[in-house]
């Protein structure tokens, strides 16, 4: 993609406005916390200090809107406490020019590395750099600096207290995540009725699993309908696919296919009803036609063999879904052993190890992002000191808040921030000229602007920046600054910060395109391990562990998502990877999708512990592990993998005899998928 087209795509992404469900009560609660802090600051200190102190409540509220499954009060407290520390440290070094610049560079570098712990940590860390830049403009004594830092921390405490005192839809995010997963599976069942090979989007299930991880305290308070339903739905997915697939389920045409479609439609209705009940916390209402379809007694007379086994198992799992969604059944996820999320104290060493690992990987996007942020913040601060504008900190602050580890987000946010700032300051200027607000009216307008930002921030970055610009101008106007002293400076310095962020990525990029083969190789290893774990169950049905299959499946999903995210980012980058064309990438990904699907179909028919072992299956499982690891190395070296070892192991298995047609058919499809993968890359090699 050319640079011009890449810039157009980035601009379109940054200026995009989405229709999202608004949450006015949460926005009002956050704005109320901000109003309390501003009011206390005005009563106890100067308007200028109040404007700076409001940053704590403002940023703490922003942190609670991030996509995180930790309790919102905890996010607010962590944000407020870290902002207070940054404020105090910034005050202590603010008068020491060289020392402050060194500290700013170090603080910003650490903020960039914080992205290794996830977007929420990265955003909170970036806010810490911003508050350090803002507060050093207020010279004061150490005692006053401590008091000011205390007001910043108070902002986080106020927001946390309001969340506890005035809860809005408790467990709402977790309910939505689980309901989205069930709705996605219902949609999958419907699509399988018409297309037995329809793809499945695993992201809702990955999100639901992340949401299901709770602290020990949360585990005791979690609503009963959030226990177990996800686990049952996870077990249901391969059964649904197995029933619909003509190779191991109902034939493509005839009475069995009609009965399978009827059961799939009923399953979709039950899953939709479960999703609605969980999302809204209401009793579950199952449509009568779905119940009738599932209770039809002639299933065994119509369906035979593997299709009948899949149908019986699916109906049993749907019954479990109904019971757990209503909070009346035995849960699959043992309530005594939930998915536990580490506490913040236990998370610290994990985050430190992640950051240390990124420091040693000089070519990692996180490491490069941290270096870019440190350099840009330092240069922006020095330029702000030299240029004849007030509030010179706006340039580095804008750059730090814009920058992200990938190209599209950085450039899109830079364009969106400047566009939103232009619109916001234009609207603010009109209001100021018409109303001439005083201190208290300016404070009220600042709170209103922040409330609108909280309400609309998820609709698009550009929309949020309109109200951020208004909030800042009104907040500074509260301290007596005229709009003519703030608006021109903010526009010019925001543009400067955005340009610095964009230039830094062009000079020191972290392109995803050259890493596509590595991502593809990682996916091949993960799906090969999953297939091997499934096959190994036939070699030792009594000793094999289902948890190994589960863990390998989760690794496949993570590698799958990483590949598709990398491919999407690479598609918008202004670079070209000559070692892997888009057509070859699509064909190879299709082959790995097929391999994962075949393994999933075999998982749906895993043997019982009393089943007779098939020793040759162990040889095939070892061949799959070994061959996919060698194949991954070949992919990284721009060679097409060879599967002779898998072919020989499958021939040996045939020699021993395979009593179940599902097993033999699945094993053959595994080899076909691997050969299809090699053909995609081999053709790419011939073209090059």
UniProtKB/TrEMBL annotation:
GO cellular component: plasma membrane
Chain ranges of the Integral membrane protein YccS N-terminal domain: 83-189
Cellular localisation: Cell membrane
A Pfam family reported for this protein in Swiss-Prot or TrEMBL: FUSC-like
Residue ranges annotated for the Integral membrane bound transporter domain, each copy included: 380-503
InterPro entries: Memb_transporter_dom, YccS_N
Keywords recorded for this protein, A-Z: Cell membrane, Membrane, Transmembrane, Transmembrane helix
Main location: membrane
Family as reported in the entry's similarity comment: Belongs to the YccS/YhfK family.
Protein name: FUSC family protein
Organism: Streptomyces beijiangensis
């Amino acid at each position: 993609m050319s640079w011009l087209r890449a810039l157009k795509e980035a601009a379109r992404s940054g200026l995009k406005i989405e229709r999202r469900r608004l949450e006015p009560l949460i926005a009002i609660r956050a704005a109320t916390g901000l109003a309390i802090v501003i009011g206390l600051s005005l009563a106890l200190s100067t308007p200028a200090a109040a404007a700076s102190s409001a940053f704590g409540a403002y940023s703490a509220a922003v942190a609670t809107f991030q996509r995180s499954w930790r309790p919102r009060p905890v996010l607010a407290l962590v944000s407020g406490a870290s902002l207070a520390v940054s404020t105090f440290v910034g005050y202590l070094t603010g008068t020491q020019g060289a020392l402050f610049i060194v500290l700013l560079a170090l603080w910003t570098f650490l903020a960039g590395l914080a992205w290794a712990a996830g977007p929420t940590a990265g955003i909170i860390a970036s806010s810490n750099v911003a508050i350090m830049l803002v507060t050093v403009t207020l010279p004061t004594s150490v005692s006053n600096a401590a008091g000011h830092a205390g007001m910043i921390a108070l902002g986080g405490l106020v927001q946390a207290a309001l969340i506890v005192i005035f809860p809005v839809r408790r467990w709402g995010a977790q309910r939505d995540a689980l309901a989205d997963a069930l709705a996605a599976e219902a949609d999958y069942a419907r699509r399988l009725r018409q297309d037995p090979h329809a793809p499945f989007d695993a992201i809702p299930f990955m999100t639901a699993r992340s949401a299901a991880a709770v602290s020990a305290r949360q585990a005791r308070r979690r609503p009963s309908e959030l226990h177990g339903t996800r686990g049952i739905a996870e077990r249901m997915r391969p059964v649904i696919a197995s029933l619909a697939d003509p190779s191991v389920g109902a034939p493509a045409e005839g009475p069995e296919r009609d009965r399978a479609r009827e059961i799939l439609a009923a399953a979709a209705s039950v899953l939709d009803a479960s999703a609605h009940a969980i999302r809204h916390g209401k009793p579950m209402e199952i449509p009568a036609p779905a119940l009738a379809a599932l209770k039809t007694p002639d299933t065994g007379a119509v369906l035979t063999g593997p299709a009948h086994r899949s149908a019986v198992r699916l109906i049993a799992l749907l019954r479990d879904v109904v019971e757990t969604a209503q909070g009346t059944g035995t849960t699959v996820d043992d309530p005594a052993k939930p998915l536990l999320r580490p506490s913040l104290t236990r998370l610290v060493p994990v985050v430190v190890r992640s950051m240390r690992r990124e420091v040693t990987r000089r070519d990692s996007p996180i490491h490069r992002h941290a270096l870019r942020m440190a350099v840009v913040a330092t240069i922006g601060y020095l330029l702000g000191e030299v240029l004849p504008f007030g509030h010179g900190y706006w340039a580095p602050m804008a750059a730090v808040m814009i920058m992200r580890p990938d190209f599209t987000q950085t450039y899109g946010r830079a364009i969106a921030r400047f566009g939103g700032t232009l619109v916001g300051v234009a609207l603010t200027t009109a209001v100021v000229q018409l109303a001439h607000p005083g201190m208290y009216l300016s404070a009220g307008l600042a709170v209103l602007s922040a409330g609108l930002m909280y309400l609309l921030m998820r609709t698009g970055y550009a929309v949020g920046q309109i109200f951020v610009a208004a909030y800042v101008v009104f907040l500074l106007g509260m301290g007596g600054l005229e709009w003519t002293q703030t608006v021109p400076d903010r526009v010019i310095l925001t543009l400067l910060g955005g340009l610095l962020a964009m230039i830094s990525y062009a000079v020191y990029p972290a392109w995803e395109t050259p890493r596509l083969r590595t991502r593809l190789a990682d996916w091949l290893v993960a799906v090969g391990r999953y297939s091997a774990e499934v096959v190994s169950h036939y070699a030792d049905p009594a000793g094999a562990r289902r948890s190994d299959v589960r863990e390998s499946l989760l690794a496949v999903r993570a590698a799958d998502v990483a590949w598709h995210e990398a491919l999407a980012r690479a598609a918008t980058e202004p670079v070209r990877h000559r070692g892997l064309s888009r057509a070859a990438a699509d064909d190879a990904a299709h082959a790995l999708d097929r391999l994962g699907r075949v393994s999933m179909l075999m998982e749906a028919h895993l043997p019982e512990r009393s089943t007779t072992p098939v020793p040759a299956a162990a040889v095939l499982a070892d061949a799959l592990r070994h061959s996919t690891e060698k194949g991954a190395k070949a992919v990284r070296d721009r060679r097409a993998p060879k599967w002779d070892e898998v072919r020989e192991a499958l021939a040996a298995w045939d020699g021993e005899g395979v009593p179940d047609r599902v097993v033999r058919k699945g094993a053959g499809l595994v080899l076909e998928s691997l050969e299809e993968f090699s053909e995609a890359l081999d053709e790419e090699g011939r073209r090059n």
